[in-house]
Amino acid sequence: MLTSITTSPQEESGFDALGDLGARVRELRNEKKMTLAELSLRSQISIGMLSHIERGQTSPSLKTLERLRLALEVPLASFFEREEPAPKNDGTVVRAHARARLPFKKLGLVKERLSPPGHSDLDVLMLVIEPGGGSGAEPWTRQGEKAGMVLEGTFELHVGDASHVLREGDSFQFDGSQPHTFRNPSSATARVLWIIKSDEAG
Fold first, then answer.
1. Do 109 and 175 reside in the same domain of the chain?
2. Is the pTM of this model over 0.70?
3. Which residue among 21, 125, 161, 192 is least packed, with the fewest CB closer than 10 Å?
4. 23 sits in which H/E element
């Protein structure tokens, strides 16, 4: 069973635009007609931490963000920066300049959303990882398949007990329910295509 998260605001590493993320979490909670106590119970995140997140006073880690996503039953895309109004098309294309971004400054990581709005069962992302950056020291899990390819730089992937160092052109796929972490062990920025075949919640 998950234990309640009681880490301090200074210990959490994550989102850069705290006010925007906090407002989105509050909006989603209100849309679900959930109180802070109900969201705390569902997510196993303390009420105090949730309050800090909603007021933009702290930032959730990757694992905390995943708990919120599951508790609110929303796709990952719900937490990205608000996207600019898309030009009239069939919802197939995302222009490079219009990508929604989810920056984790303290982790040295930015997730850029490549999927057009409205697609929730398959998330296609670009991971931009600074030298030494990554997902953090603590392994995490997510229901669904994950796959991708290294477009630039070096990418160190740990899945279960196995470790892999991948370079430009190398690809991968694994069961996201296995504990996993990743990082950029090199002195140059890494860019990784990151594909998630999601569960029903996204």
1. yes
2. yes
3. 161
4. helix 18-31
Q: If DSSP codes are grouped into helix, strand and coil, which group holds residue 162? A: strand
For residue 129, give the CATH number of its domain.
2.60.120.10
Q: Answer yes or no: do 155 and 66 share one domain.
A: no
pLDDT value, residue 81: 59
Are 112 and 99 within 8 A, CB to CB? yes
Regarding whether 101 and 164 lie in a shared domain, the answer is yes
φ, ψ (nearest 5 deg) of residue 36: -60, -40
Sequence-distant (6+) residues with CB within 8 A of 24 are 78, 79
CB count within 10 Å of CB 122 equals 14
Look up residue 148 and give its two tokens: 């991708």
Are 60 and 117 part of one and the same domain? Answer: no
Based on the domain organization, do 169 and 106 belong to the same domain?
yes
Write the CB contacts of 30 (distance below 8 Å, at least 6 apart in sequence).
none
196 touches 122 (CB < 8 A): yes
- Listed as ranges, residues in the chain with pLDDT below 50 are 1-16, 83, 86, 200-202
Q: What is the structure's pLDDT at 62? A: 81
Q: How far apart are CA 37 and CA 129, in angstroms?
A: 35
Give how far Cα 174 sits from Cα of 67, 70, 145, Å.
Answer: 21, 20, 6
CA distance 19 to 93: 28
Q: State how far the Cα of 13 lies from the Cα of 105, in Å rounded to an integer.
A: 8
Q: How far apart are CA 142 and CA 175, in angstroms?
A: 9
